[in-house]
Amino acid sequence: MAKQVEYFFAPVSGYAYLGHAAFLEIARRAGAEVILRPFDIIALFSGQGTVPPPKQGDKRLSYRQEDMARWATRLGLPLNAKPAHWPANPGPASRAILATEEMGHDAGAVAGAFMTGIWAEERNLADAAHLAEMLDALGLPAADILAKGDTPEIVAAYEANTARADALGVFGSPTFVIDGVRYYGQDRLDFVAEALVA
Questions:
Q1: How much of the chain, in percent, has pLDDT values that exceed 70?
Q2: Which of 9, 77, 140, 162 could bridge across to 16 with cysteines, CB 3.0–4.6 Å?
Q3: Which domain holds residue 34?
Q4: Domains identified in the chain, total number
Q5: pTM higher than 0.90 for the full model?
C-alpha cells in the first residue's frame, strides 16, 4: 500500500530548494502520495521562539552559506548562497503554490520553479510580477493563480498548514512527516526513502 508523506516547506528555504527535486523523485519511485504543505515559517519561528536564519550571528550564517554551497555542488544545482531577495515574505509564493494545486496544475513544479527563482535567478518571491513571470514560463495562467492565492479559502489553507506544522512538531524547512514520524532537512532524504518503502 502506497504511503502518504506530508511535505512541509517554505519556498524561501534554501535547504528546501536543495532537496526539492530529489524528494519528489524519491516519492515518485516509491509511489507515495505527497501532500504539499507550504507554511508560514516566519510565524512558526516566532511562535516557537526560534531565531530565524537571517537574524542569526555572522559565524553561523556564514557556515550556512558554505554548507549550502557544498550541497549545491554535490547535487549539481545552481546556487547563489547570498540571494538578492532573501529573506522575503513567503506568503505570496506559498499561496500561489496552494492555488496552483487547487486549480489542478502541478504544484510541485511551481514550488520548484519558485525555489530556483530565489536561489538561482535573483527572483523576489514576495513580488507578484516575479511570480507571474515564473508561472508564465511554466505555461500556467498566472493572473488567475495569483488572484486565487489571495482568496479567503487559500489564505485559510495556508494558515491551516502552519497550524498543522506546529501541532506535528515541525520546526524548520523542509520537514517530511510519514506515519507520524518527522524527518527534518534535505540531508535526511535517505531516511525518507527508507520510510516510504518500509
A1: 100
A2: 9
A3: 4-197
A4: 1
A5: yes
